[in-house]
Design a protein that fits this description.
Length: 277
């Protein structure tokens, strides 16, 4: 009789424990499945976004904005937009990124990253005023949420947009602000070099580019910009040496150099032609 009572009392407890165990197992399976899917998503992004030098920081910023998103439609939408950007379909990329912001709920950090990609696409289209607007929007958000990395990226973006608009002194100030925020940001030092070149301050430009190379030895653009500064100084040997290194790191600079106004004085030079052929 007493044993029967114990059995009756224990049954609900056993059932509850069994349900809890099943729930725990299901939760763990879902958790691992989600973690695997998110890991795969990040690997895809590393492959797609990491191909473009200037987007590497944006990738980190983006992933910080959506830690472990469960929304696979959101992931798919983002990858579609990145594919358009990688395929140089900038109008389509801008449209998809803007739809992304309108369709999904996004964090402020994530919004910064998406604005960065939109601004990048606009910059590559030559829409420098629009790119500048996106950079300024990023700055406002980054300051509000106290995101130092986002603020640094946005300020560096502002620098290159201002430089293309011919506002070189303002561009230089923006670069110096980005460096103040993150002294080891090679991209900001490289951008500073370009602003200084456009201000005819070649020795300072060389120092800025050298700092970028010191921070990131395989930074092809910094080697290329250093070659530009040497060209404007009339130092042919240094031009050829630094341009050769830039091309070694990124063969695309062969074609760039053929139409680069800073190398105009060397376009007909046999050694220059050999390097760029």
């Amino acid at each position: 009789m007493d044993a029967g009572k114990i059995l009756i009392i224990s049954a609900p407890i056993l059932i509850t424990a069994l349900v809890a165990a099943i729930f725990f197992v299901i939760t763990e399976i879902r958790k691992r499945k989600f973690e695997n899917r998110n890991r795969k998503f990040q690997e895809i992004l590393q492959d797609k976004v990491g191909k473009i030098e200037s987007e590497i920081s944006s990738l980190k910023l983006y992933l910080n904005g959506i830690p472990g998103t469960k929304n696979r439609y959101k992931q798919k939408a983002f990858i579609s937009a990145i594919d358009e950007l990688n395929n140089y379909n900038y109008d389509s990329a801008i449209r998809l990124f803007e739809e992304y912001l309108n369709q999904f709920s996004v964090s402020e950090s994530e919004r910064c990253a998406i604005l960065n990609f939109i601004g990048m696409s606009q910059f590559k289209k030559g829409e420098y005023n629009e790119a500048l607007k996106r950079a300024n929007e990023m700055i406002l958000i980054a300051e509000r949420i106290k995101d130092k990395e986002a603020l640094c990226i946005a300020t560096a973006n502002k620098c290159v947009a201002l430089d293309e608009l011919g506002r070189h002194e303002e561009a230089l100030s923006a670069c110096e602000k980005a460096i103040e925020l993150k002294p080891d940001f090679a991209g900001a030092w490289c951008n500073k070099g370009v602003a200084l070149i456009n201000l005819d301050r070649y020795e300072e430009a060389l120092s800025a580019c050298e700092k970028a190379i010191e921070l990131k030895p395989n930074f092809a653009l910094a080697w290329y910009n250093k070659a530009c500064a040497y060209s404007l100084k009339g130092e042919k040997e240094n031009v050829l040496r630094h341009l050769s290194k830039a091309i070694e790191l990124d063969p695309n600079y062969k074609e760039n150099a053929k139409t680069e106004e800073n190398f105009k004085n060397l376009w007909d030079d046999p050694e220059f032609k050999t390097i760029t052929s």
